[in-house]
Input
Amino acid sequence: MTDVATRPAASVATAKTDASRLWVAARTAFPFLVVFSLWEIVAQLGLFPPRLFPSLLDVARAFAQLTLNGILPRHALDTVLRLTGGFLLAAGVGVAIGIVMGRSRRVEDTGLPLVSVLAPIPGIAWAPLFLLWFGLGNRPAMLLVAFVSAFPIIFNTWTGVKAVKEIWVRSAQAMGADDRRLFSKVILPGALPYILTGLRLGLAQAWRTLVGVEMLASVPWGLGWMIFGAREFLNTDVMLAGVVVIGAIGLALEKLVFQRLERYTVQRWGMMT
Amino acid sequence: MSLAATPPARAGAGALTPRVRSALRASLTLLAFALLYETIAATGYFPPVLMPSLVRIGATLWSMLLDGSMLAHAAGTLYRVMLGMGLAIGVGLPLGILMGRRKPVEHFFMPLASAFMPIPSLAWVPVFILWFGLGNTAAVLIVFYAALFPMLLNAWAGVRAVNPLWLRAAGAMGADETALFWKVIIPGASPFIITGVRQAFLRAWIAVIGAEFLAASDWGLGWVIFDAKEFLNADIMIASLVVIGAIGFAFERLVFGTLERVTVQRWGMVRDVKG
Output
């Protein structure tokens, strides 16, 4: 009590933030409650066959069962590995091409037409062709993911290198920076906000494409394949559990990977606010 | 967010010569690339059904254009995109504006939108196939799902980005609710709304191809590609890819570029980049 008496303002403030935080949580949960109860009511009424419109309990049960017997984690792991492999390939190649295009006029004139001609074609449209060229399974899926995510990475890296202020380059050179130092101390940090944007867009595209490609390429394991395969057996509960996992991975990629990366690099260096 | 970032302006004086040189190099590159492809195809290292020569692809494209089948499939795909986009704009735009103007609406729909947005539209394909059967309905709904979120979030962000000073100024000058909406909020939010439509189209264009692969009925560019795969008709597949790319490019450059020029640039809402 003495504590409250001596510092009333502070404790009132904390009480208030606690209450408002609780209110925000309740406010956020409310729409989901509404949607879930609507779903449950429709499911219980039996308007649609329960195989096609399972109750949320069934979905939760399918989710728990598939998680416990390790099938769902294995599908998810394979999907994430495939995404990582394809994306890392695209990031390495794309950033390198983008930087060279940004620095050399000759390479820019050579590379830009190719990139501009290929970029407007949606990546998923290449999928059947990649399947013909590289066979079924893992290889075409990973190559297509890399191919799709390379374009935003190349474009944005190129723009970023072009956007480095000429005066920074010249003043670094005037202060005696050699090529390597110029690259690592001026051009790379200067282009980094753009490069990160490119990586982020590339990863988002890769993710959206991968889910589709897994349905087409009949990979042995993978979330896309899992939900597409479940269709054959009318396992709507398995499909919905898979969709939830896909959404969770998508959210995690955005929130955990890139926001954190941005905080540690460009925000810290003061390149972005 | 657009894929093609605008390159920074180059030196103004004497820019013609480098530009001519760039164009020359660009055409040379494309020519060299075509020759390289043609040479590889001609060596027969890969079976010609998998890697047809460019002449063959051109001939296929030409004959499909002439007999009207390519146009019919393109029209079918565009019909699905337009229907899905129309639905997405019809739902996303009013809802986004409402979310920007009314807090309770925002508090209700924002958590839902953030939960559903990270789910790629193609993940719904198997579910929608089960619910609506193979064919048009499932494809249009996939397009709708893909286009909805860019539209919704951009409309919401646009309304919130309207300068409050303008609102107060208009209010002080006696604008009523209708005038405020049509004369201040809509023009103020228009750059975001147009960006939203543009992004929605990009997403929809990807989604419709995927949806046509998987939820195929019997027409549409995506279905043509998928069907040609069964018969190893790589020339038809590549010809369709060309058409898909051309339509996407045309929409991005011609339709949205023009739209932007006659609306927001004219109203002075965005500055011309080529300054």
Notes: Chain A has eleven helices and no strands. Residues 1-10 of chain A have pLDDT under 50 and may be disordered. Residues 2-47 of chain A form one domain.
